[in-house]
């Protein structure tokens, strides 16, 4: 019974670790063999019998009976006199099996056994966690905020597994409190020593792709395919979608009536502006769609260098570039082309405000006072007349004219 009692004391934490009895017994045998090897020098002459149903474990040492005074290896051999204390009819040359009680190993060995057992179970536990989360890489996962640090948020899932959400994997507008649930994708799982390190991301393009799968039934069912996702997290994203069923409008299905379907995704991503675009293998058409909402006059492609020259009407240029250059940058990433934007040099005029990066606002305002608010309206005037009609120096007027003429060269 003492073996059973000790094993039960070793396995008190079995339920907490969700480890099954059979696995525990296999680990126990491994741990006890290590202890036997340490105490006796080897363990190959020991039988360890495990009964997982009863939670029992027996250790038997097998030795050969030798004549008294001829024992050379006490672990492998036993003297006739000692053997007959076990059974009085033993003879030289016979095998003796003797049960080893755990208490015989000594108190220090039992403490070491316990520590070794705990370490082995943690190792087993960590291996299972690593395998579990390795299979979840690239999938959406939800966990609760446990601790907020400067460079990362530490999350815990329902099983108490620790997940790290680094600062650079958070959307800039993210703000979480302790106890809140956080959604992201499992980006990577690595073993640091024997402990798995699980990294979550909310900025990866695949997070947006998986949100489409979760929120849009046609994507989940495979009727609509997400071909590519590019993002500037928290700012803007472009998602190319396609359907092999001509009866389905992939963009309409993803956006929903008045944006109803995509609204929850936008909210999850901190109001990230999401453009959903019909995918096409026609590069010119794809670039045209990717630069939406700008309307394009013409496109010239160089497929070898993957460069695209896009001609737009002057009033469409700012739409193509977008705030902070986000629209044109994402369009380039989505299509795989380096996109250069040019204003149409035809009969179209250009608003003077389009040159605000080169001409100061107060100078533009001076021209507007006399009704000149486009580039051509100024270029058609005499320099002296412009100086006379405005409060501008001749040098300033000449500088403005030089900037405007470059536009039409």
UniProtKB/TrEMBL annotation:
GO biological process per UniProt: DNA-templated transcription termination; transcription antitermination
Domain annotation K Homology: ranges: 233-306, 307-384
Keywords: Cytoplasm, RNA-binding, Transcription, Transcription antitermination, Transcription regulation, Transcription termination
Single GO MF annotation: DNA-binding transcription factor activity
InterPro entries assigned: KH_dom, KH_dom-like_a/b, KH_NusA_2nd, KH_sf_prok-type, NA-bd_OB-fold, NusA_N_sf, TF_NusA, TF_NusA_bacterial
Location(s) in or outside the cell: Cytoplasm
UniProt-listed Gene3D superfamilies: 3.30.300.20, Nucleic acid-binding proteins, NusA, N-terminal domain
Entry GO CC: cytosol
Subunit structure: Monomer. Binds directly to the core enzyme of the DNA-dependent RNA polymerase and to nascent RNA.
Family of this protein: Belongs to the NusA family.
Task performed by this protein: Participates in both transcription termination and antitermination.
Stated name of the protein: Transcription termination/antitermination protein NusA
UniProt source species: Gillisia hiemivivida
